[in-house]
Write a structure and sequence with these properties.
By secondary structure, this protein is of the alpha/beta class. The protein folds into three domains: 5-30 and 173-294, Rossmann fold (3-Layer(aba) Sandwich), CATH 3.40.50.720; 33-168, no CATH class; 300-490, no CATH class. It is built from 18 helices and eleven strands. Strands 3-2-1-4-5-7-6 form a seven-stranded mixed β-sheet, sandwiched between helices. It has a two-stranded antiparallel ribbon with strand order 8-9. Strands 10-11 form a two-stranded parallel ribbon. The longest helix has 36 residues, at 300-335.
Length: 496
């Protein structure tokens, strides 16, 4: 049971695909539970803080006519908002079932009241402990508490009604693919289809073992591992659960290697516990224990922060660099015949085909199965092209790809399709580069790993650094790479 990853990429590249920016909306209506819960947490903090300011204006300024220091009230208000978040969280207010599937009730309101009471009692205690309580109005504190309770409870009832409607429409369900017809996966399938797991939807059941398929209804099977990888590349699910019988656990390593190229969460639902060496995290779906052995990179708020950085800084750079780009376009036009811009098909996020935009630097425009890497003193490179490639200014039009959400400012550099297909067959980790969006610059580039890869080891080293970036990503790392990129470009010697 082996999957040819390079063949799968070729098949996907040949398929007609939707534009990158539209496909994300059309292919799925899934919104992560975690994202919703984090949003509700932030909302509650803002509500409590805002209520502290409103109470101050109403009670202290208007009713009392006192002129109190604004900054001190804001500091206490923020502290109260943070403490309220902690006590609400400890009470289980933010459990997905409570928010997404729960109903407005007196019990829920009582839980909010109790949690806020703990937070405000702690605020009062700290005020007495640090001898600052006399600086603040007691009426303000009581009004702040009352406004916070009414605002959070009222907003929660509205939010629950709205989110429950969306949940019923399937927006918060985790789209799940099951691989294997082991008893644990079959039990999961029945539970999901019976509606026992309302926040989970079944995207497909996959199996390669012919005997297992014969023992079950073959019409239930969406395909084998090949079809699972293809469907994953089409963004048809968010999670894969491997549930094969214990006697077939020897297949697990190969399954994980094949599935690791997909930007999805991978979990194992074992018949027993043969995976102690992997030290996986444990999660639960219903009363079934799952072992998390693969994580979607740069997800949830990390992805939102990275997208905001890309769109904001990308647009700023495009505006600031537009005069330089206009001069480069003029130089290309005067230097050699042909178009100013060059578009080449490359693999983007989740192995999807995108058209990467660059300034034309050659007399040819290779975009098929015969793309040849540029070499030193390459006679295809124009006079202006040599300067542009040496300074990487030919990459500036990719800012349009960034703004179009096809690329990121920082990420693994995209390669031509023919090169991707070639190296995917030779390097096991290579396809994993596409679990995030490709970037204009990346960790490999600031380490000097760019230019011609005339040996397999050079590409292996570049791919290893790209995987290192994906597995250790942080917002600070992206900022660091962006700042180091100009310096790295000044010292590069292997860009032809």
């Amino acid at each position: 049971m082996r999957i040819d990853v390079s063949s799968a990429l070729k098949n996907l590249s040949s398929c007609e695909q939707l534009p990158e920016t539209r496909r994300g909306f059309l292919d799925t209506r899934h919104i992560s539970n975690k994202t919703i819960m984090e949003t509700v947490r932030v909302f509650d903090m803002i509500v409590v803080f805002a209520c502290s300011l409103i109470a101050k204006i109403l009670y202290v300024d208007i009713i009392g006519g006192a002129q109190m220091i604004e900054s001190s009230y804001m500091l206490v208000g923020f502290s109260g908002a943070l403490l309220s978040l902690i006590t609400l969280n400890q009470a289980g207010i933010y459990a997905p079932d409570n928010i997404l599937r729960g109903k407005p009730s007196f019990r829920h309101a009582a839980c909010v009241f109790k949690s806020l009471s703990y937070a405000f009692m702690l605020i009062v205690f700290l005020g007495y402990a640090f001898k600052t309580a006399e600086l603040y109005s007691r009426g303000w504190t009581f009004l702040w508490f009352a406004l916070s309770f009414v605002a959070i409870t009222g907003a929660r009832f509205v939010l629950m009604h709205f989110l429950k409607k969306l949940a019923n429409d399937g927006y918060f369900r985790t789209r799940t693919a099951l691989y294997g017809l082991g008893p644990q996966n079959m039990a999961l399938r029945h539970a999901i289809q019976a509606g026992e797991m309302e926040l989970t939807s079944l995207s497909g059941l996959y199996e390669d073992d012919s005997q297992a398929i014969e023992d079950h209804d073959s019409t239930l099977i969406a395909g084998g591992l090949d079809e699972l990888i293809q469907d994953g590349m089409q963004n048809k699910f968010d999670r894969i659960i491997i549930g094969i019988p214990a006697k077939r656990t020897s297949e697990t390593t190969e399954l994980l290697a094949a599935m690791s190229i997909l930007p999805v969460n991978i979990q194992i639902c074992p018949e027993n516990m043969p995976f102690s060496s992997l030290k996986p995290e444990i999660s639960y779906i219903g009363n079934h224990t799952l072992f998390d052995v693969g994580k979607k990179p740069i997800s949830e708020w990390q992805g939102i922060a990275k997208a905001i950085l890309d769109q904001t800084l990308g647009l700023i750079l495009l505006v600031l660099l537009s005069p330089l780009m206009a001069l480069i376009a003029l130089a290309i036009r005067l230097d050699s015949p042909g178009p100013i811009l060059f578009f080449q098909k490359r693999h983007g996020y989740n192995h999807r085909t995108i058209n990467v935009c660059k300034f034309r630097t050659m007399t040819v425009q290779e975009n098929d199965n015969n793309v040849r890497q540029a070499t030193k003193d390459d006679d295809r490179v124009t006079r202006v092209g040599k300067f542009l490639r040496r300074t990487s200014l030919d990459e500036l039009p990719q800012l349009f790809n960034v703004i179009n959400a096809e690329m990121s400012l920082v990420g693994p550099r995209p390669h031509a399709l023919v090169h991707n297909n070639y190296y995917s067959a030779l390097l096991e980790k290579y396809p994993g580069r596409h679990k995030v969006k490709p970037g204009m610059t990346g960790l490999a580039q600031i380490r000097g790993l760019r230019g011609e890869t005339d040996t397999l080891e050079k590409m292996r080293e570049r791919a290893d650094v790209d995987i290192e970036y994906i597995e250790n990503w942080s917002f600070a790392m992206d900022i660091k790479i962006l700042f180091k990129t100009p310096l790295a470009l000044l010292h590069q010697k292997n860009a032809y």
